[in-house]
Write a structure and sequence with these properties.
Helices cover about 70% and strands about 0% of the residues. The chain is mostly helical and about 210 residues long. The termini are far apart.
Length: about 210
């Protein structure tokens, strides 16, 4: 399977982005993947180190959830894979304060980072198979992606720091719950509203173009 076929846009809109931009070509998708990776890098710069944990509070998870829900499974996963590649090559795309390059991926936060492509894919995959775009379907998608990120992150953190499970959860999950709940609530409210508004606009545009009988 070629890269062009992987990034080709399906005939039926399955992601919010495809509803807004229905005539995407493979070249457009490549540009969107690059833009998505840069968006994650930008959100990563919003970082708050925690003195009691090796894991900082960042805007990365918001970017991952947004891309997965808005870009679709394959496109968002490709954007996150590119983001990790950029970071592994030493580009300053990770949150400030930690080691650069591959050392970041092998460090305490590596589990969270390495889970990003799969989490974005999972969110997009769930929504692509939900015909009725009710608010709960968006909520399920972002919650599943969050669970994957933090599940992988806490397991990796425990293995790298040689802590027990309660300590790993205390260091890698509990401090982040308030912020993640806020992110999930924001996305679960804003994304369904955006989908409804985009669908309404598409229908009105189609009605205006329909020839009079």
């Amino acid at each position: 399977m070629s890269a062009t076929s992987v990034l080709a846009t399906p005939a039926r809109p399955v992601a919010l982005l495809e509803l807004l931009l229905p005539r995407l070509t493979a070249a457009h998708n490549v540009l969107l993947v690059v833009a998505g990776s840069l968006f994650v890098a930008l959100c990563a710069q919003v970082s708050l180190p925690l003195p009691f944990s090796p894991v900082p509070v960042t805007g990365q998870t918001f970017a991952v959830l947004f891309l997965g829900a808005a870009f679709g499974a394959r496109r968002s996963a490709a954007a996150l894979a590119l983001y990790l590649l950029e970071g592994a090559l030493g580009l300053p795309v990770f949150a400030p304060g930690g080691p650069p390059g591959l050392a970041r991926l092998l460090g305490p936060t590596g589990g969270y980072l390495l889970a990003f492509p799969a989490a974005a894919f999972l969110a997009g995959w769930i929504l692509e198979r939900t015909e009725l775009r009710a608010w709960w379907s968006w909520l399920v998608a972002v919650l599943a992606a969050e669970a994957l990120i933090f599940g992988a992150g806490v397991c990796w953190l425990r293995a790298v720091t040689l802590t027990n499970w309660p300590q790993a959860v205390q260091l890698g999950l509990l401090p982040f719950l308030p912020g993640e709940i806020l992110k999930v609530a924001l996305l679960a409210a804003a994304l369904p509203a955006s989908w409804w508004a985009a669908q309404t606009g598409v229908r009105r545009d189609a009605e205006r173009r329909r020839p009079l009988s």
